[in-house]
Amino acid sequence: MPVKVKYLILGGGPSGLILAANLLKSGEKSFLILEKENEPGGLCRSREIDHSMLDIGGGHFLDVRNRKVLDFVFGFLPENEWERFDRISKIRTPKFEIDYPYEANIWQLPVDEQIEHLKSISNAGSNIGRRQPEKFSEWITWKLGSVIAHNYMLPYNSKIFSDVRLDKLGTYWLYKLPNVSFEDTLRSCLLNKPCGTLPAHSQFYYPRKYGYGEVFSRIADFIGKDKILLNYSVKTIEVDHLGVNNEIFAEKIITTIPWPELLTSRSIPVEIRRIIRQLRYSSIDITYRSSNQSTNAHWTYFPDENLPYHRLLFRHNFIAGAKGYWEETNSRRVVDGQPCTHHNEYAYPINTRHKPEVILKIMDWAKSFSIFSLGRWGEWEHMNSDVAMNRAINLADHLVSA
């Protein structure tokens, strides 16, 4: 017998779970989540490894700034079950280690290095009024100066986005980078302390006893097993009559799964399938190491292109009683024979130059059939989990009030 619901949610990751929980809180019970894995949580799942939890999708942390998201999350995992941290993250180059953000901590370097960095920043195109370039590598140098660009930003992005050449990346998403003024940098060097804008996650929450996935496990429990269909792959989507696999039908579909997963759906027009094929993404392997590192950092970035991984996360510094750390490595950079604790096929959407217009065409087409796009993969945006949760809350409010 075909199943019919009001809302059919594709994907049981953070976005799908938060959306469903908000629908339920609003009194709406006619919905169903379809999840291809044997457990919900998506990229935010955690598993016990070596007697402590490890986040198999990489590093995820709860920013302290969005009160609406915090109130929602603390309704499932109360605040007293979280630890609040002042972020300690570092950048380790072949020559030195410096606190993140790089530009605010140049004062930690030897004096000769500080002088070279200050000269570079003072000559950066953004500081001397040069026109903003369009190519990614030129933009980074224009924004930060040649020294920071070549020591950190260019090699790091080359590692994390090994799937494309850097100049195929757009610059529209780099608004997150703070302004690097010569004055702030000089002031920090003179005062021996960071000056300027603090980065996202300058403070964050992480569960005291659990992995980050605990909150999504509890949200899934609230939603109920009868509302989450696990081990269910979306093979086709029937656009004209809003169905999935010709088995489950809805008045509205909300998709949080990667668009390339729907390419086999013949009801999607050829032109839209052609556009979907233009979307690019990175795969990431997570590898656990049992030894402790001599560091107080929560995580460290590695722009050194001779090393396969781009980030290490030291769980012994943010999970009480834990040991060890895990590596994040772009799957294209994994050395043959290297052990892998978990492979994430879809890890990071890649912000290619034409992505905004590509994803807008896809989303507009989908919405015309009452298919809504949500989350990192539905919107094809490299968003942190708190941003994804906020958008899910907003979409749920929109749907129930429509």
SSE topology:
Blueprint: E1 3-10, H1 14-25, E2 31-34, E3 46-49, E4 52-55, E5 62-63, H2 67-74, E6 82-86, E7 89-92, E8 97-99, H3 111-122, H4 136-144, H5 146-160, H6 182-191, E9 203-207, H7 214-223, E10 228-229, E11 237-238, E12 243-244, E13 248-255, H8 270-276, E14 281-289, E15 299-301, E16 311-313, E17 325-330, E18 342-349, H9 355-367, E19 371-373, H10 375-378, H11 385-401
Parallel strand pairs: 1-2, 1-13, 2-10, 7-15, 13-19
Antiparallel strand pairs: 3-4, 5-9, 6-9, 7-8, 11-12, 12-13, 14-17, 14-18, 15-16, 16-17
Task: Give an account of the 3D structure.
With 402 residues, the protein is of the alpha/beta class. The protein has three domains: 1-44 and 213-280 and 351-402, 3-Layer(bba) Sandwich (FAD/NAD(P)-binding domain); 46-99 and 199-207 and 284-349, Polyamine Oxidase, Chain A, domain 2 (Alpha-Beta Complex), CATH 3.90.660.10; 101-191, no CATH class. The protein is built from eleven helices and 19 strands. Strands 1, 2, 10, 11, 12, 13 and 19 form a seven-stranded mixed beta sheet that branches. Strands 8-7-15-16-17-14-18 form a seven-stranded mixed beta sheet. It has a three-stranded antiparallel beta sheet with strand order 5-9-6, with no helix packed on it. Strand 12 (243-244) and strand 13 form a beta hairpin. The protein starts with a strand and ends with a helix.
